[in-house]
Amino acid sequence: MKFGLFFLNFLNSKRSSDQVIEEMLDTAHYADQLSFDTVAVYENHFSNYGAVGAPLTVAGFLLGMTQHLKVASLNHVITTHHPVRVAEEACLLDQMSEGRFVFGFSDCEKSTDMRFFNRPTDAQFKVFEACYEIINDAFSTGYCHPDNDFFSFPKISVNPHAYTEGGPAQFVNATS
């Protein structure tokens, strides 16, 4: 049986962001020592629902401080990031951790975040699909060459290519 946990990193009047982050680091350290399989980090912006706006950055730190633990981005919000940059960062984490990084991603839950990051809210699901297609191509082939309504550029190599054949393990986080 495999055990894992995820960090929502809620903030409140009794827990500062410093405390929340320290607790996350301590918990990940113990989870690694106790042979947990995976920890995952949640992305959130502009609210007390989470202290982490950059789950891939946190994942890199956690991968560096652990030996065996897989580390996942619980919901890297791909619609508010450039997909090539996402693919580069995810492949780099996959390489540096020798396959311990798990790429969890999602669409943006809040239209306010989409507007803040200057992303089209009227075609949000299509943006999500376009981003995922680029990221998945980069993971599986090492290259991408999109030509859709949102992204169009010549064929490029995403460096480094993924360590894991086909790219890091993936899951999509969804709500209904």
UniProtKB/TrEMBL annotation:
InterPro entries: Bact_Lucif_Oxidored (IPR050766), Luciferase-like_dom (IPR011251), Luciferase-like_sf (IPR036661)
Gene Ontology MF: a single term: monooxygenase activity
Segments forming domain Luciferase-like: 1-165
GO cellular-component term (any): cytosol
Keyword Transcription included in the entry's annotation: no
Keyword Oxidoreductase set for record: yes
Identification of the protein by name: Beta subunit luciferase
Organism: Vibrio sp. MWB21
Chain's gene name: luxB
